[in-house]
Design a protein that fits this description.
By secondary structure, the chain is of the alpha+beta class. The protein contains eight helices and eleven strands.
């Protein structure tokens, strides 16, 4: 041992190299997962530098969620073919996790932006030129005694979840031109969800580019009609005409605040100049 002592690390030294605690190495030794290369008569344990690579494999497999028992089975029976198969499988799992983390990151970014826009919104009405964007429509909304067609709404939510469309954008509501003109602001035609990437979704349509009158409703949902009344009046008094749907998007809701007066709904009505 004296002649090749420098090739070995004490338990403490090896643990420090691996960024772990000594008790982790003791535990791995106890369960026969990773044993020191040499154990002296006095009980001192020594690890070889060549064991670093094996320990790194254990650390990586553990980090991606593989149980220690499964790691031990792999190490006991490892060969090039088994290693190749395992690494391919774990690579797929990592890619899935990366995809999921990117989705969560996008969801958080969207939520942050929506809340910031909601907080900074005012009662002022603004005419905006908007670019076209893709949205996924629900089935047509059925007229019910309630404010919402719960069945259609739930079906749309389920479709969005099943097709990885949950990017943090709220499910919006659409009112058609006829109902806007007749001031039936609680009669929705469709629910919709924004789409980040154009794919083959059911009922994928273009929200047309063009001029929109944009306003905000501040307060609980039952106050949204007041914003519509104000917007229709503005359209009538400013030589404009309704030329499409209105699109409602909830920016601040129960998730962001427990107080109904904090809620903010963005309304965009497609218009033209007479």
């Amino acid at each position: 041992m004296k002649g090749d002592f420098k090739k070995y690390y004490t338990t403490g030294e090896f643990a420090e190299l691996c960024g772990i605690k000594k008790k982790t190495l003791f535990h791995y030794d106890d369960i026969d997962l990773f044993k020191p290369e040499k154990v002296m008569s006095n009980g001192y344990r020594y690890y070889s530098k060549y064991q670093l690579e094996v320990f790194n494999v254990i650390a990586v497999l553990k980090e991606i969620g593989m149980p220690l028992k499964e790691i031990k089975k792999f190490l006991d029976k490892r060969n090039p073919e088994n290693t190749l198969q395992l690494l391919k499988y774990e690579k797929e799992q990592v890619e899935k996790e990366i995809h999921n983390l990117k989705r969560i990151q996008k969801l958080l970014e969207v939520k942050l932006n929506l809340i910031e826009v909601g907080i900074n919104s005012t009662s002022e009405l603004v005419l905006e030129e908007k670019e076209e964007e893709y949205i996924v429509l629900s089935n047509p909304v059925n007229e019910t005694e309630d404010d919402y067609d719960i069945e259609t709404y739930t079906e749309h939510i389920k479709y969005c979840i099943d097709n990885d469309l949950d990017y943090g954008y709220p499910v919006g509501s659409i009112i058609n031109k006829e109902n806007l003109i007749n001031r039936r602001f609680d009669k929705y035609s469709y629910y919709f969800s924004k789409v980040i990437e154009k794919k083959k979704y059911k009922d994928l349509v273009l929200k047309p580019k063009g001029l929109y009158l944009v306003g905000y409703s501040h307060g609980y949902y039952d106050k949204v009609y007041k914003a519509y009344e104000k917007m229709i009046k503005y359209i009538e008094e400013n030589n404009l005409r309704i030329n499409g749907y209105s699109y409602e998007e909830v920016l601040i809701d129960e998730i962001a605040s427990s107080i109904g007066d904090d809620f903010v709904i963005k309304i965009s009505i497609k218009v033209d100049k007479n």
